[in-house]
Design brief:
There is one protein chain. The chain has 14 helices and 15 strands. By secondary structure, the chain is of the alpha+beta class. It folds into 3 domains: 133 residues, Histone acetyl transferase 1 (HAT1), N-terminal domain (Histone Acetyltransferase, domain 1); 151 residues, Aminopeptidase; 169 residues, no CATH class. α10 packs across α13 and α11 crosses α13. The chain is globular, with a radius of gyration of 25 Å.
Length: 483
Amino acid sequence: MTSPARGAVRKRLRRATAPDEALIAPNDSDPREAGTEAVANACSDPEVHANQVWKLKFVLNEEDNAVNGAFYQPSFTHQIFPNERIRGYLEPNLYQVYDAVTLHCYLNFKYTAVVNPSKEVTPVMSTLQSLLDECGGYTTDYEAFRQCSRNANEPLETALKTISTYDLHNETFIISEGVLCSENKSPAQAALRALHRRLQFLTLLYIEAASFIDDEDPRWMIYLCRSRRDQRLVGFATVYRFPAIEKLQEFDPHREKWRLAQLLILPPYQRAGHGTRFLHALYERARCVSEQTGRCVLEISIEDPAPALCCVRDLVDLEKLLTSDDASRQWAQSINASSPVPSRSELKTLAQRLRITAAQVRRLYEILRLHAMVSASAASGDVDPELEREYRLVVKRRLFRENEECFGLKNDDERKQMLAEMYTSLMQESYHPVIAAAMRRGLIAPTRLERRTGSESELHVLVSGSKELLLRNSAQVSESGST
């Protein structure tokens, strides 16, 4: 089965290229007429990073406005502006304000002047217009935006089913499930699809390789996380359901797999714990579906997860492994610094029990073995170089198999260098932050070093090219939750 984010999705990006197509707020003049000669001659071809001049805000009521309060910057703009650059403007500022409940959008592009208008000028507004029109539209009139937000009473609830609630920071949040494409043509269903389309634009700004999904496919599910108090949107996820076909002669229409294609926690709520709770809710939902409907959800996988989401998933899956049942917990606790790689049948059995992939169980084994090595080195005060070498080779062999197409015709030295970089990145960006977070939550035992110092930010880690490296402040597991 091909991945929905590679086959069924559509990257529907249209860019305007002619400089004179730029529609500039606050006026509608042609950019070649906007600047003064003095400015045009004083500065030659100015260029700014789009991420730095783009400011987003999420407002809830009329007291909020477009210029005061907390703004957020996008993480990625390369799918909108080439090289994430805006050219040709003096002191440009791009403001985008969203209603925190409905995600209706206000847009305003301000600048002092166009510099050297005879040269290439980035058509900022026309480029955004082509995308935002496809994502539910926008307005450049702030009063109209406020009026729209004030009057918006989209009847979402009848198209959604609450699947989970949780309390965080003295507030209650609700996670609801809906179907993007349904035979039901009710106003609530139409409102849900419209909200999803408005969300799609934000994925371009916060998910590096984001694609728009085909919302006319009935196999797409959408999950919304909102505040119970005021319905403010916290985040969303889209999940693709497809038949679990391992052997054609054993096909069972009631057996299915889920693939998480998009998971985005909105900027005001990132790094607060919502991502882990979202994943826990999806796993629990898969279990309930199997028990309540007769459908059997065999596994939940994630489509091309970003490093931050890998950390969140590893932490959630590690918690499931250590708390779900006695057999899983005993297997996890049996892993030591020299434990061999589990057999395929062993990985498959654990994967079926946890509803994750065998490849993900393999990652959990590597994390637990690394933790055992860290604990052993902290206890003895030194690193066993043979254990370190053996572990490094085990991980690198797996990385090579999973990324073999990346190596192509490279020679041995180039392959070794790439593998060393992959290994170091995996250790520093994924495994060590997960271990630190798991120790902080009491899922795994702290090392003797931490018992002595009482600091979870000081963690001995093993990386290629050095016997031992002390990473500080590695306990931060990002909750941006993007794929």
